[in-house]
Amino acid sequence: MTTFAAKPAVMTAQEIDAFLAREFPQIHVHGPLYRIEQVSHAQATMRLTYHDSQLRPGGTLSGPAMMTLADLVFYVAILASIGPVALAVTTNLNFNFLRKPAPRDLIAQCTLIKLGRRLAVGDIAITSDGSPDLVAHVTGTYALPDQK
Amino acid sequence: MTTFAAKPAVMTAQEIDAFLAREFPQIHVHGPLYRIEQVSHAQATMRLTYHDSQLRPGGTLSGPAMMTLADLVFYVAILASIGPVALAVTTNLNFNFLRKPAPRDLIAQCTLIKLGRRLAVGDIAITSDGSPDLVAHVTGTYALPDQK
Amino acid sequence: MTTFAAKPAVMTAQEIDAFLAREFPQIHVHGPLYRIEQVSHAQATMRLTYHDSQLRPGGTLSGPAMMTLADLVFYVAILASIGPVALAVTTNLNFNFLRKPAPRDLIAQCTLIKLGRRLAVGDIAITSDGSPDLVAHVTGTYALPDQK
Amino acid sequence: MTTFAAKPAVMTAQEIDAFLAREFPQIHVHGPLYRIEQVSHAQATMRLTYHDSQLRPGGTLSGPAMMTLADLVFYVAILASIGPVALAVTTNLNFNFLRKPAPRDLIAQCTLIKLGRRLAVGDIAITSDGSPDLVAHVTGTYALPDQK
Q1: What is the reported pTM?
Q2: Closest CA–CA distance from residue C70 to any residue of chain A (Å)
Q3: Domains parsed from chain A with CATH numbers
Q4: Which residue from B56, B96, D8, D83 has the least number of CB within 10 angstroms?
């Protein structure tokens, strides 16, 4: 695998949290449920604290909470790698929903498998806290603004 | 194109609305923002009323509202085609985010391009109300429960 | 839908055929099986002539011929829209295989649903000649080189 | 990650090679270029020997050879896990093309991230021989036949 991780992050988890709270206050509408656990160059881990607002009886509508978490951890991994780029935009997200998540916290781990000048591609694994099995697997692409 | 539309829907928009409100009350947490506009066999159109909770400064985190809308209109198209199947589960969703949506209602139109015994595949076009340009295009798969 | 089609193509089908034969002679290794049927701005239609080399007993390995056709018709639609760009590269392709194709010609129709400065996104419908049902549906992204 | 690998494969690499050569002789049309390197439960590794027929000047048409390799290694991982199922069919493949591959052998490693009763989902990493960097990343779904 590509070995980005030796480089340090350019923003700390605290700096990214402050950036997100300022730029995207909506993610905390139900309280601080989305929390950065760890960042390094080209990697980020987030936890989504379990909350009744995510409950889906029967599990039929899998995923708005997972989809939001995936998009967010991907953006955090980019911020950790290249700094505050408010103009990065998601261009593609592909979700495979694998198992019905238990009513527990979700952990999302993103690895940037490409970090180019114009595009970043991420691989995101989502698990239920306490189990190694993937509940969802996601890949996605961010378009990065032209850099001077 | 596959011409499903000649067959009538097996549930009306009103029946599906009632089913969703009973099974998935969370979608109305900010009020009745997600509204079915039209259903027929293998097709559904929904409107997401614009609401400040969807606002994203700079547009960076494109999409939780659009992703929820896409998953929902897809499920509505399935309900309209085969009736109340609470156990249908999304297995794949692939999003292409094409243009930054204007601060207006979003319209999502889903066509089932396959409606098999075990899998349904949908094609979903999302536009901003009043403009023909796609803001997002989505394809997805639902696994259907075994039918007797 | 986005209405690109009023603009004329910048290359004719004959010019694109000559460009492909010169730059990518491999596509004709089994003879001239991939043929452009029609091009206009942001649209292209190609036919893959049926040939035993595509046969898959049981249909299990669905798709290398369809995948090649989809990538190619997408590239042809870009050439028709912005001219000869040998450096355009596919960055994402998402395939949904819907029905087992009959042993007949395949028809692929590509519409560019976004044609930006740096990215083009295409929607590709593949049918068997003589039937309106989709055998596969594809979306994809091409990264375009910086233009002066 | 899900830890399938402790279970042994139900078919050896030799048995799978023989099954493929019998059922899908077309993959060897240019000689035995696609070779199984290793199989275990829910995992497979294949090598695509470099051959001029895959050459793409400029690299523009990235991928038919990679797409075929991805579909094949995925099928091999399923065969290794549940035995000869000629009726398994690919329903979805999502490709992210990350780097232009060097003119060398390609190595594809597939891990099944879900192996259910009706669906198998695979994660496939493709690298150039001798480099750890991904040239492509693929996820996909196979529909499995009903099992007695």
Answers
A1: 0.92
A2: 18
A3: 13-143 (3.10.129.10)
A4: D8
